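Action item from last week, closing it out:
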Amino acid sequence: MIKKALQDDDMYGLRRTGGQAYSARLSIPRDRWADAGKAFGTKTGIKQEVVRSLGTREKQEAIRRRDKALAAMREDLDTRLVAAGFLPIHGHWRPDWMNEDRLLTEALEARREIAATSDRTDGGDRQMGPSDPRRRLIEGMDYLLEERAEQLEKAGKNSSGYVTRFREVALGKVTPIGPLFDRWMRDVESTIRQQTARGHRLSFRLLGEFLAFQDEDAYSSQDPETLIAATSVESVTKRRIGEFPEWLAQRKGLSAKTIQSRISPLKTFWDWLERKGYSETNPWLGATTGLKRRAGVEETHGQKREYIESELVALLQADPETGKRGDYGFGSALFDLIRLGLLTGARQNELASLTRDRIQPPETEGALPMIVVTSEVAKTRNSRRRIPLHPLAYRIIKERSDALKDQSGDASLFPECPPGGPDQKRSWTFSKRFTDFRRHVLGDASEGQVDYHSFRRCFITNMENAQRKGVSACSELIRDHLVGHKPQSLAGSTYATKDFGGDAYSAAIMGMVEKGLPSEVLKALEATQNNRPPYPWI
């Protein structure tokens, strides 16, 4: 049985005048009395209520006329308030259940309950006859929707759209992507970095743009994120999204490798939908066919490389305080991180994020001090490692540590590199400053050829050179441990020890610098070690 919208209060919104006629009475919230007074131009400056005659002395007739009268009175009040420069009587408020996200969430919950309820007919009762629990649950949902429809009508809003959308979702006719995508993101965000999460959201936004492109007349005015959230799972078919990879390549100018990274979250999301029972098939299966081969061809033409000897010498000898766009105070960071990257093979964020407590003293008399790459900054599980510091590198670390005002263990060794970006990496701003510096020193010809990661490529190349010159400590397995790669051989990845100790790693680093590093580069390192610009905090 439908509950009465007025909760059995027949006189709600009604007033009986002295002549026994009924009037509709619209109360104005206390905090809006002054606004209403100005809107109506009252002498007292306030207005507490609006009263309009219903033109009848019959109570039941007055009740029938009341709702339409109150809706018209609210509309008139809102019109006057807006014309006077104020918000409508209730601002932009609407019942929370009218919110699109709330609607979809409640409808999906109703859908799960309906699916889990038996449809086997039972005895029913004398008046209604045989029925089944699922039908009774749907009838209860319909009663709720009727109540809400009444509230919408009283507020002067069209209720048919709300009711229709709720029923379509609840009865399994459509499954909107929006709330399911939010659930999926909450499920995976604890295991991925913020930058990866941003990539997932970008993939769905691009899909929304693609769907809008497919039907410009229907969707040209819609925001892509709103469009994809409202799109149903059932409508995303293999035929519909078949041209998505070509659209990303031709309209967005994305490389094959980037297209793969944009489609991958979509495929993973649909795998999740299948496991949860919201989709029967995954339309993204096979969507990246041919992209891997195309990506290989593209990489062959535009693959980055290590620095050649003359480039390294030029970078080491250049003044890091020149060629910048303004005074960023990054000269000392550029000077130090270029050298640390070349001598350790570590990634730029692994180095820029170093703290005092991540510096380990030598394990034995012949070993070197080490830096520790912890899980907080490691890119992969294998990236958690220890890297010995050659004396040229340790001098940089020690001088920075000694010069810090903050001598606590978690004090950053590179305080001039502020955290930034979606994952608050200390390499965020440094990466941009290094790009400026590299372009200034090496020119535009280096664009697309080398980057900071090229120091890591140099480190691996130098390890290989040292091994060929007889430095047995620079073995492939030791090299993989030092750079944080998973060993390629089964024996190395499965059976070999995960840590060969400081002596073995130290011997590899010393051998790499002495035998693998080009002689002119080593000379430039030694000759310029006193040329560092002053620290910006001193």
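Closing note: Strands lie at 14-16, 22-27, 49-56, 122-125, 129-131, 359-360, 370-373, 385-388.
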